[in-house]
Amino acid sequence: MKAAVTTKAGNPDVIEIQERPKPQIKKGWVLIKIKAFGLNRSEIFTRQGHSPNVVFPRIQGIECVGEIEDDPSGTYKIGQKVAAIMGGLGRDFDGGYAEFTAVPLEIVFAFESNLPWNILSAIPEMFQTVSGSLNEALEIKEGETLLIRGGTSSIGMLACQLAKTKGLTVISTTRNPEKEIHLKENGADYVLLDDGQINSKLKGLFPKGVDKVLELIGIETLKDSLQCIRPKGIVCMTGILGGSWTMNEFTPMGDIPSLGRLTVYMGDAENLHKDLLQEFIDAVAEGKINLNIDKTFKLDQISEAHSYMESNQAKGKIVVEI
């Protein structure tokens, strides 16, 4: 099979297209013929060598969609459409940057859809992250105010749409004035230009602060986001678009406002419910949700796709078709 192999930690050019044998499946695993996969920011950090347990060379890719090629357990039919997500995929064992992948049954999710593969490939990880962050971590409710820090990311764009369907008022941020219109077209009620300190601007709109904050930039703006919530408001850190994992100084009694709440969402396959996934796919097919796919690449363009993702030019999800 053809595979995109990250040969060592480094820049995008460390990813090489190679011929590899088809993966061998073991008990409790299935073989998937991959049709497409979405790219994720975490794969940049893995490629750069920041995922501590990853051993190179490695076929990366924490998600994929395709068809069952072989399932010794008989759980799935040959040719059945499935998604695979997380659970060590692309980190502990070879992942989705290939024509085939072998994965454990517990991270496989069957679905029915006539949507094109590049559309379907944008869904699994993005939906799992957004749904888990909003519903499980932030427990959003109709009538609340939600600040999305990092609004032009694919996660931020989808989070805005899902929050609006639940009846929330959404404030999205961007560092680029040219992207403001895209956030408004995506449904944001307010857009704030983000220079790293927006709490005073936000308090001009909502003097008591907002109910919930989805923090996608990470520790660079986390302290400021904490100052944006009302008493008993919640900040959920889900993303690290800023590229830093560790905060040098953090004083809980001071950086977290009195009665404020801070949590994180680090979802896995177990947080993705099969019925909700099918429901979401159907909503995309019916035009109720716009996935904001920015660009589709081919497998032999994977280095170019990584460079594009790293450049922060995208206004939505980047996907790769086999």
Automatic annotation (TrEMBL):
Pfam families according to UniProt: ADH_N, ADH_zinc_N_2
Domain of life: Bacteria
InterPro entries xref list: ADH-like_N, ER, GroES-like_sf, NAD(P)-bd_dom_sf
Gene Ontology molecular function: any one: NADPH binding
Alphabetically ordered keywords of this record: NADP, Oxidoreductase
Every Enoyl reductase (ER) domain range: 10-320
Protein name: Zinc-binding dehydrogenase
Organism: Dyadobacter frigoris
